């Protein structure tokens, strides 16, 4: 099983990114033992649309485009 994280926005350099990387490394070690094949993280840039509905639609389309075949959305 694969775990794919798709998020809107990019994590900037700093303590939060360092912490996220540390957890990612821990997951890869422990996840293998639990049957996970790895962790993929996709950071999608925020939509620049001014209208909220358009922004939501653009970001939803970007997320949908990255969903793997036979996925389970949580």
Summarize the structure.
This is 23S rRNA (Pseudouridine(1915)-N(3))-methyltransferase RlmH. One of its GO terms (biological process) is methylation. By secondary structure, the protein is α+β, with helices and mostly antiparallel strands.
Account of the 3D structure:
- This protein has a two-stranded parallel sheet.
- The chain has helices at 15-33, 52-66, and strands at residues 2-8, 38-44.
- The protein is 46% helix and 19% strand.
- It has one domain.
- The mean pLDDT is 90.
- It is flat.
- The longest helix is centred in the N-terminal third of the chain and has 19 residues, at 15-33.
- The protein has 74 residues and is α+β, with helices and mostly antiparallel strands.
What is the total domain count? 1
* Class from secondary-structure proportions: alpha+beta
Give the percentage of residues in beta strands.
15-25%
Quaternary state reads: single chain
**What is the element string, with H for helices and E for strands?**
EHEH
Major beta sheet, strand line-up: 1-2
**What gap, in angstroms, lies between the N and C termini?**
14 Å
The parts where pLDDT drops under 50 for at least 5 residues are none
GO molecular function: methyltransferase activity
Keywords: Methyltransferase, Transferase
GO biological process, one term: methylation
InterPro entries: Alpha/beta_knot_MTases (IPR029028), tRNA_m1G_MTases_N (IPR029026)
Give the topology, please:
Layout: E1 2-8, H1 15-33, E2 38-44, H2 52-66
Parallel strand pairs: 1-2
């Amino acid at each position: 099983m694969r775990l794919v994280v798709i998020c809107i926005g990019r994590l900037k350099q700093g303590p939060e990114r360092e912490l996220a990387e540390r957890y990612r490394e821990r997951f890869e070690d422990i996840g293998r033992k639990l049957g996970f094949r790895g962790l993929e993280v996709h950071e999608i840039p925020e939509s620049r649309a001014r209208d909220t509905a358009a922004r939501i639609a653009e970001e939803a389309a970007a997320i949908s485009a990255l969903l793997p075949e036979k996925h389970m959305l949580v």
